[in-house]
Amino acid sequence: MPTETGSHTEIAVFQKYSRKDGNSCRLSKTKFLFFLDTELAAFIKNQKDPSVLDHTMKLDLNSDGQLDFQGLLNLIDSLAIACRESFLWLSQKRF
């Protein structure tokens, strides 16, 4: 269940990057890559597949080359699920 503070943070981060060129409703691919490099540096650093960034742009549901807030939330949710699954897998391996 999302918290009020978490929602405010997600909105603030989206606005921070989407306003870079005056369009506060969408992230262009350039702004999205800047977001990833800045906010998710470990994710970028640990990628072994160079096409993973292009795959993340598939969250652009209407294929206009830009990511809206819903697309960014989908990415954050997917990463959180993957992190949790990795954590569970690692914790099971310890026993």
Q: How would you describe the overall organization of this protein?
A:
With 95 residues, this protein is mainly alpha-helical. The protein has one domain: EF-hand (Recoverin, domain 1). Helix content is 64%, strand content 4%. The protein has 5 helices and 2 strands; from the N terminus they run H-E-H-H-H-E-H. The chain has helices at residues 4-18, 29-39, 41-45, 52-56, 69-93, and strands spanning 27-28, 66-67. Strands 1-2 form a two-stranded antiparallel ribbon. The mean pLDDT is 77.
Proportion of residues in extended strands? under 5%
- What fold name goes in the CATH topology slot? Recoverin, domain 1
The radius of gyration computed from the alpha-carbon positions, rounded to a whole number of angstroms, is: 15 Å
How would you state the average pLDDT, rounded? 77
The number of distinct helices, counting runs of at least 4 residues, comes to 5
Structural class of the secondary structure composition? mainly alpha
CATH architecture: Orthogonal Bundle
Which CATH top level class fits?
Mainly Alpha
> What's the CATH H-level homologous superfamily?
EF-hand
Helical coverage, percent range: 55-70%
Cross-sheet strand order for the largest sheet = 1-2
> What's the number of extended β-strand segments?
2
Question: In whole angstroms, how far apart are the ends?
Answer: 29 Å
Poorly predicted runs are none
Biggest sheet features: 2 strands, antiparallel
What general form does the structure show?
globular
The total number of structural domains is 1
Order of helices and strands: HEHHHEH
